[in-house]
Q: What sequence folds into this?
């Protein structure tokens, strides 16, 4: 599944977002088909059909997730089945831009002791 590019659109105020860059959406690693993250740092749930307890099928539309703050960092809860996991948004963007899972990474390539070591 490749990148999906979407332009900002506002049906009530046409032209309000003209000139802004196109937002690229890529699937969240480990949650493909359920969630996508944009290069602008937004996370959305993808449109999907779920089975209700009474046996009926329900279609859920794609929605932008509203992050909460944890230690000053925006984070979102992602669900797979009945299990939830919290992720900091910048980690999802980093993992997507690198194309691999970065859980456990600090985001830094070297430390001060590594730079001075001979």
A:
């Amino acid at each position: 599944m490749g990148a999906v590019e979407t332009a900002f659109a506002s049906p009530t105020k046409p032209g309000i977002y003209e000139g802004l860059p196109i937002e690229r959406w890529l699937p969240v690693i480990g949650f493909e088909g359920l969630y996508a993250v944009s290069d602008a740092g937004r996370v959305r749930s993808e449109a999907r059909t779920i089975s209700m307890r009474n046996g009926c099928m329900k279609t859920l539309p794609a929605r932008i997730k509203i992050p909460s703050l944890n230690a000053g960092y925006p984070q979102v809860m992602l669900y797979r089945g009945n299990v939830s996991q919290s992720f900091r948004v910048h980690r999802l963007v980093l993992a997507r831009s690198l194309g691999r899972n970065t859980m456990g990474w600090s985001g830094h390539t070297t430390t001060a002791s590594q730079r001075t070591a001979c």
About this structure: The first strand starts at residue 4 and ends at 6. The two ends are 44 Å apart (CA to CA). The longest helix spans residues 89-98.
